[in-house]
User: Fold this.
Amino acid sequence: MKLFNKQTATLITAAGLGLAAVSSAWAAESLQDVMKARGLSQQDLMAAAKTYVPTGKRDDFIAFSSGGQSGQVIVYGIPSMRILKYIAVFTPEPWQGYGFDEESKAVLKQGQIDGKDITWGDTHHPAISETNGKYDGQFLFINDKANPRLAVIDLRDFETKQIVVNPIFKSEHGGAFVSPNTEYIIEAAQYASPLANKKFVPLERFNEEYRGGVTYWKFDRKEGRIDVKNSFSLELPPYSQDLSDFGKGPSDGWSFTNSFCTERYVGGIEKNRPPYEAGCSAKDTDYMHVINWKKAAELVAQGKAKKINGHNVIMMETSIKEGILYLVPEPKSPHGVDVSPDGTHMVVSGKLDTHVSVYSFDKIMAAVKAKKFEGADPYGIPVIAMKDALARQVQLGLGPLHTQYDSKKCVAYTSLYVDSQVAKWDYCEGKVLDKLSIHYNIGHLNTMQGDSMDPKGHYLVALNKLAIDRFNPVGPLHPQNHQLIDISGDKMQLLYDMPLPLGEPHYMVSIDAKLLKPGIRYKHGTNSRTDKPHPGAVRAGEEKTVRKGNKVEVFGTLIRSHITPETIEVNVGDEVTINLTNLERAEDETHGFTVSTYNVHASVEPGKTSSVKFKADKEGVYPYYCTEFCSALHLEMQGYLLVKPKGYKEVKVAAAKAVYTEDDYKKQVKKINDTQAVIDSVVGFITSHNYKDFPDVVSLVEDATDQLGRMKEAKTKHEEAAKAKDWQNATLWAEQVWQYQVKAADIGLRAKTYLEEHGAKKVGK
Ligand code: CUK
Ligand code: CUA
Assistant:
């Protein structure tokens, strides 16, 4: 093929010619040489082989980790531990335009509390939606502990769609966890406070007026949103409700929430009282709350809930009378409650005890049925004796926190915070199987799909609180350390350390990558935050600017490598809204958009419509441009916002002098003809193959056809100008034709490469 210009040449090299030199250099070294040079052991090599995902290949599992104080979710692949995305949730995230375009601002606004913006979150526990207790890959939920909120993320586009504020809590920790069919998402209070919280209540009234609770957010799967009106809570004693989990299989219909500080100690070193830590761990036991949520939902439907701040709350009195709430003692300052995959047992860790306690759901139900209680707590909630609920206790080590399950029956893994170890143990037989030291203090851990009814085994990730000396030093604040562990054999094997520099990720969930089926484009003109058609969307050729009083609204489009409109003229003081629709269909053809100094940014993926809004409060000239390197002519994807002063009068400016000659025009025409030959050959290749069997290629072909379609008008113009011997305009319009060709060629080459890489077949004419 003969070639023509720099851009196309670059494209063709990138498409596959530049690799030969690299492969021969690689072969000259032996594996032994590399091991020696880098000081690697056989075991290191084995670990590398188990985690390495070769270029172009993908991971088997996808992890969704809480981003801790960053208020985001971190998405990474397992076993490679490559980070794929930060999902913006409670905190503005500029790349995705989150908090900088109007659509996402509306989501963040849902998270306002008492009319105030809260632009961070203390995210702790992500949860994947389930169908029949198994992950379905549709939705992700995550809580904000500090400002009691819950967010809904749609896994079709990995975008946050909704934030709900808990109407009665001031903090929340025991969420998000989902019921087996994602009817409800649970959230439990952490630090008790008066539920209505409308007036000051002194700490001396803690026992009487401060309350904890659990909230069951109703999830409307069809809408993909939480149904706030049909959600409800249970009022609970002012114990620090901690983590929760839903029953499943035989225990479906029940949920479990552990607690600490049932001493109801309120501290007060200022008044010479012993500190919180001492008072909150004085007793030997705390309580696990056992709740019949299905019956609770019926009680709400029967109108037996009280409205507090407009929200349905079942008061303790009602819960006790209706028999939907029980307590079971748990060893000292427990943490974590994790229901086994078959739904028969609940494992609670001791935190300040060396044991984990395995409770039997059957035994608890037998006690409930026989009304066999050892007494009641100060609020009258029946307490089932520990011995009547326990299946067994197993001594694992110091500071057990959280438990996850293996695909192998009865096998569980528990994090040991103080010992900095993972314990593998058998919860049916009650014996320790293996222990592995990790670095360093471990909080949560995760086995693949390990909190669903379908655990997959393979790997375990230890979410460690301290990294200390594991990584290159970066100042006093260290990254967190996620360690990947192979759990496929009898002995656990440490494979990989991944520093995570984004908040303290408490918990992580993982899913078989095959279960995720995110889209690659939106339907033309979609508001991705509402999933509805965007009123600001237009099609190609319909772009316009509308003025109403001092409000100017732009309806524009984005397509390689052009922003329509190219200039926006407004008067100082105008309120400007710019709606932009990305007309692309090709995968990964995102355009970004910003206007200099107006603090707006949008990330506009194919098919999406985004809008930015601002007051043009200062006269002057403001370039706007595409912020995503989207094509060879990305830098030319630009325009000007011109803000005119009050009373500005148009002045005549002399037109620029012609610089192009007939010779220039002829060169342009030759270039066009040469490029057309390349396009023809690419088109020939595509149409001689079964490209219609590849939807991604069909999209690319549509995009290329679009570009070529736009060429016609420019072609007529350069030909007419040439006829009139206006070489200036003839040359420029000819250049425009070539621009369309380059873009079409770029897309065409991408389609051709795709077909070659995906084994497309030749078709008969
Ligand atoms: S908590 Cu952090 S280690 Cu918020 Cu799930 Cu246990
Ligand atoms: Cu579009 Cu750069």
